[in-house]
């Protein structure tokens, strides 16, 4: 059974995330688990996320957010930010979420997080291509 679509294609925040993510060499988008996900062989960013509550109940949704893979050396500092959350399912695999709906978005920060995630999953030859551009 297919996952329900969990985004609006006319979402201006998604449009900006899409613009950043698709600028990376070899990047492509596909819908995964009902959400826009951006890949370069492996996924490097997903738009929208959720948190599994500590007690029984529905997941807490963050529809305007990104989930990115983070370097363990950066994790502690990032977790101090109130906009950061540990996403359901992907959190255990080293991913963090950034809520983009809480206040004015710093798009340079978003681009840096996406860049760092891309570099953690992209093949070395693609990273060299990025560095040469």
UniProtKB/TrEMBL annotation:
Keyword DNA-binding: yes
Xref: InterPro entries: YjbR-like_sf, YjbR/MT2646/Rv2570-like
One Pfam family from the record: YjbR
Example of a GO MF term: DNA binding
Taxonomic superkingdom: Bacteria
Keywords in alphabetical order: DNA-binding
Name of the protein in its database record: MmcQ/YjbR family DNA-binding protein
Source species: Mycobacterium deserti
């Amino acid at each position: 059974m297919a996952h329900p679509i969990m985004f609006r294609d006319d979402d201006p925040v998604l449009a900006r995330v899409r613009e950043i993510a698709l600028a990376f060499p070899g990047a492509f988008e596909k819908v995964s688990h009902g959400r826009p996900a951006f890949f370069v062989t492996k996924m490097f960013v997903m738009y929208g996320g959720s948190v599994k509550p500590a007690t029984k109940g529905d997941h807490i949704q963050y529809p305007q957010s990104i989930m990115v893979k983070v370097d363990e050396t950066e994790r502690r500092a990032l977790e101090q930010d109130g906009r950061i959350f540990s996403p359901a399912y992907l959190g255990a695999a080293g991913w963090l979420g950034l809520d983009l709906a809480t206040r004015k978005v710093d798009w340079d920060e978003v681009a840096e997080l996406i860049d760092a995630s891309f570099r953690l999953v992209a093949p070395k030859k693609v990273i060299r291509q990025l560095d040469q551009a």
